[in-house]
Amino acid sequence: MEKISNFTGVGVPFRYSNVDTDQIIPAIYLKRITKTGYEDGLFSTLRQDPDFVLNQEPYKNPSVLVAGSDFGTGSSREHAVWALRDFGFKAVFSPKFADIFRSNCGKQGLVAGVISNSDTTKLWEAMEAQPGVELEVDLPSQTIRLGELEINFEIDEYTKWRLSEGLDDIGITLQNEDKIAEFESRRASWRPKTLPVKGD
Amino acid sequence: MAEKLTLAEKLWRDHLVVKGEDGAPDLIYIDLHLIHEVTSPQAFDGLRLAGRDIRRKDLTIATEDHNTPTKDIHLPIAEPTSAKQVQALRENTEEYGVRIHSLGDKNQGIVHVVGPQLGLTMPGITVVCGDSHTSTHGAFGALAMGIGTSEVEHVLATQTLPLKPFKTMAINVEGSLRPGVSAKDIILAIIAKIGTGGGQGYVLEYRGSAIRELSMEGRMTICNMSIEAGARAGMVAPDETTFEYLKGRPHAPEGKDWDEAMEYWKTLKTDEGAEFDAEVFINADELDPFVTWGTNPGQGVSLLGEVPDPESFEDPSDRESAKQALKYMDLQPGTKMKDISVDTVFLGSCTNSRIEDLRAAAKLIKGKKLAEGLTMMVVPGSQKVRIEAELEGLDKIFKDFGAEWRFAGCSACLGMNPDQVGEFKRAASTSNRNFVGRQGKNARTHLVSPVVAAATAIRGTLSAPSDLED
Ligand code: SF4
User: Fold this and answer.
1) CA distance linking residue B85 with residue A34, whole number of Å
2) d(CA B234, CA B202)
3) ipTM reported for the complex, 2 dp
């Protein structure tokens, strides 16, 4: 994974709340077996509307999504994160994320930062005043900058560390291989095993 | 004296491999990993790319459910991308030596029906699956949660997951359900009360006399929808009902193992005096059959109620989402729920497709006819449920009634396989999600219990079992 520290990119005022993962990417796109190439599925239903924000010229190459509350609810599909990433997004901000979505973001190098409701509105207004304006996202200081506006976002320390180091989860865990093996040696024999196959 | 712990905290303690320090998550051991065709291909891809193997094939099991057709299953899967996903699962499990139950196999079916049916799901274990309804398995007193595809890869490679401890929430459901009211109504009422985000960050523990009285199927229905309240996991402490359900199943412990397990399982309850981070109280005596009117599972009312007026919501975002929901659902505020007529009825999904669900519906429709103009599809949760139902003659009851009797799978629960509700059609569905487009493009979903589904199929309008009496 790429290390992330500080980047600038076009911000999108995404005035929707309660956006579930079916809306981010409908089930029909879940049938693929690859790990990339999901940009066409992103918000595909909303994008049918020519007035939809991502169809507007200034937002053609976006990298920061500023959404309303309860973003990423519903199904655990990681494709929602892949679709955002493949579309070019590097960060999503919202007053509230669904847990699974947020943790999926961290694993794919997408910054998911929590900002207050009032800061969300401020950002929306500022972006709408200059459509296509670039935001600066500074991960180390957890700040979003847009002109005079400087907004703090929350992200947990651990995810932040991983994003900035570009660390792969499995690699981190396998540093504890000996402890896993030790735990397994104590695992009670009544605990389930799928093999050998029993029954019919 | 020992620290007083909740059930969820005990399970956490007993699966802790490494305690996280300096904000790092804890490393938690996973006892059982369930796999299906949708969220696994990329995980296998990742393993392959990194040259890693599966750590514990003997704790891993796969089945095909989301994409599989529920009729003509002897034919090749028609839809090319569905066929490709299923094929990928077959190839991956073959390559890595993972047990799989494929279409046509007795133990093929919805992953959350298959685990319990095999006796692999048991109290005191951790269960994960790349599917948010993995919370279902919590009904056994297991810590069970849905994970994303990267986490699937992580579990395959390490049999562990880095997780932050959850907060705990007690959902106390006291009293007794009235006739015609069932587990589904309890959970819909809970979600309407705490909201679709109310359980976020929590493990829910369902407690109280009404929960104790429920069968395992009913408990699974409730735990299944924990995710609809925003919680990643929900659980019920194991008791005699649990042990009885489990005993004798193919993978349930036997002999000395069973005795040893029982000794441990009996300790699996929240200690007297342990504190939850939050508590919710529901009075089961007062519950009516529940039904959704909107496009998220929290937008529900009593079946005796009416479609709410969006203006009646205080919170502006609730008001806005109610407005959008009514537009999509094509409903007017003030319409009595019972006056809403439906086009189709779906009995199935990991929420309500177990034998008890089918029995409850069959009992009501026996000897009756499907309402004029309606269609109905009955989709058992697994092949085994289907076979069991056929031995009891339930298939005949459904077919005589005018319903279609299908093979096992996720079916119309999500618009991913040939079973869809149809554009602008209205469904009474025993599934768990009424999201926009969930059951097919522009399909309108009302979530209901199996008996409400049955009563609705008879009358053609959303109905309670008690409506059949007059
Ligand atoms: S039945 Fe529906 S909710 Fe359950 S696993 Fe299948 S698609 Fe998911």
Assistant:
1) 10
2) 9
3) 0.93
